[in-house]
Amino acid sequence: MENQTNDAENVNMHEEMRRAFALLSGKWKLEIMWLLNQRIYRFGELRKAIDGITQHMLTAQLRELENDGLITRTVFAEVPPRVEYEMTAKARALGPTMEALTQWWNEYGKSVPVKPSARGRKPKAQ
């Protein structure tokens, strides 16, 4: 990719895209965002929905996504406390990108080799 600079604003698009990719980089962030694009989740629901993620890693990834303004965390004053996570409007704007990825996967996903997961906690045997 060429380092494109918009002279009107003196913006290096290569660097800007690097920043954009960093928002969603990491093993779990895209999967978390995919789930939250479907509906609001509680912490325990997310942990159960993502095979192999540890509690520590889920907490860290959720904090980063919240700090980047992509998700909101709502704590309800109940006993025990209830915490819900949902996408912000900024993150919902990524919807067309997620739809394009879904369309791409439907067309080419079967040609992608399955790789065994070697990281994270092992799913419990049923």
UniProtKB/TrEMBL annotation:
Lipid metabolism as a keyword of this entry, yes or no, is no
Instruction: Name the Gene Ontology biological process terms.
Output: regulation of DNA-templated transcription
Q: Which UniProt key words apply to this protein? A: DNA-binding, Transcription, Transcription regulation
Q: Which GO terms describe its molecular function?
A: DNA binding
The HTH hxlR-type domain extends over: 15-113
Pfam families in alphabetical order: HxlR
Keyword Transcription regulation assigned: yes
- Which PANTHER family does the record associate with it? TRANSCRIPTIONAL REGULATOR (PTHR33204:SF29), TRANSCRIPTIONAL REGULATOR, MARR FAMILY (PTHR33204)
Protein name as catalogued:
Helix-turn-helix transcriptional regulator
UniProt source species:
Pseudomonas koreensis
